[in-house]
Design brief:
The protein contains nine helices and ten strands. The chain has about 350 residues and is α/β, with parallel strands linked by helices. The chain has two domains: about 130 residues, ATPase, nucleotide binding domain (Nucleotidyltransferase, domain 5); about 170 residues, 2-Layer Sandwich (Nucleotidyltransferase, domain 5). It has a five-stranded mixed beta sheet with strand order 3-2-1-4-5, sandwiched between helices. Strands 8-7-6-9-10 form a five-stranded mixed beta sheet, sandwiched between helices. Strand 9, helix 8 and strand 10 form a beta-alpha-beta unit.
């Protein structure tokens, strides 16, 4: 009888911003995915880096212990530890990276530094009962800090075709929400308000950016100027039209994203389209991507659990790297701006 091969257990650690995550994978199968959120940032209307790093220090050990417990394995079973090397907040990255290095050294197992944005894309390959994209495919990666169109030719072979030149789409949502006086994080609230608003009530200019690049800072400015102008005529303007404002803003952002994505598809001839990143939870964007399937495109949208920052995506990226023999040195440093 042929002996069954023992699975490769990978511990993934995510600490790029304000969520502390730990996940355990057996090969490409997820066994545990634990995330500790930091509610303290709501009070300040945005992520405070110093508070984030302190919260990571408090959360990292309990989160890792919970992941191992849920996965029903011990530290001794781990084959490697993958961690977010960047991009992200320097202090937050340092906490996760230092913990991963210490644990890997103590256990005598390999360490694998992971690019956070590549990990968002590879979340599509966590083994579940859902289709996964074949190579090559295009991935629209949209988060609070990044907006990119990436050509993916293999698990670790990726090329950025276009990216934001200023604000990311997630920043545009959050900054517009702040202008409207909505609590942090405002993006999901804008999405909720947009459900009952008229997306064609207000027209915002589409910023110009070369090629497949994006620009959203001008959109935020025009949104602000519209509200200021109308409030001079009617002080109750914002309260009366907040649903229409949210719907019109969301419609414009989604239109910009989809138009650039389709332009990249036409230029490359690639009809497989994937979505990733925190803003991939936006209902308007998900509907727009799903709608492309009626136009001859293959579309792939991640489950909500893999949209926002999580350690499962770090773990699957670490597993692909482990299979390729990729290892990181203990001396490597975390980087707030980490290129592909």
């Amino acid at each position: 009888m042929e002996k069954m091969q023992r699975p490769v257990y990978i511990l993934g650690i995510e600490s790029s911003c304000d969520d502390t995550g730990a996940a355990v994978l057996a090969d490409d199968k997820l066994l545990a995915n634990i995330v500790a959120n930091q509610e303290i940032h709501r009070k300040w209307g945005g992520v405070v880096p110093e508070l984030a790093s302190r919260a990571h220090q408090q959360n990292i050990i309990p989160v890792v212990e919970a992941a191992l417990h849920e996965a029903k394995i011990s530290k001794a079973d781990l084959a490697a530890i993958a961690y977010t090397r960047g991009p992200g907040l320097p202090g937050s990255l340092l906490v996760g990276g230092s913990f991963a290095k210490g644990m890997a050294t103590a256990l005598g197992i390999p360490l694998i530094g992971v690019n956070h944005m590549q990990a968002h894309i590879l979340a599509h390959f966590i083994r579940e009962d859902r289709p996964i994209p074949e190579f090559p495919f295009l991935c629209l990666t949209v988060s609070g800090g990044h907006t990119q169109i990436v050509r993916v030719d293999g698990p670790l072979v990726m090329t950025i075709l276009g990216e934001t030149q200023d604000d990311a789409a997630g920043e545009a949502f959050d900054k517009a929400a702040k202008i409207m006086g909505l609590p942090y994080p405002g993006g999901p609230i804008v999405d909720q308000l947009a459900q009952t608003g008229d997306p064609h009530r207000f027209v915002f200019p589409e910023p110009k950016a070369e090629g497949f690049n994006f620009s959203f800072s001008g959109l935020k400015t025009s949104f602000l100027y519209l509200i200021k102008k109308e409030e001079k005529l009617d002080p109750e303007f914002l309260m009366k039209h907040k649903e229409d404002l949210a719907a019109s803003l969301q419609f414009t952002i989604v239109k910009i994203l989809i138009n650039k994505l389709l332009a990249a598809s036409n230029a490359t001839g690639i009809k497989r389209i994937a979505l990733s990143g925190g803003v991939s939870a936006n209902s308007g964007l998900r509907r727009a991507i799903e709608g492309l399937s009626t136009e001859g495109y293959e579309t792939f949208i991640p489950p909500f659990a893999y949209c926002t920052d999580n350690a499962a995506m770090i773990g699957i990226t670490g597993w692909f790297a482990y299979q390729k023999g990729i290892r990181s040195e203990i001396t490597e440093s975390s980087q707030a701006r980490l290129p592909f």
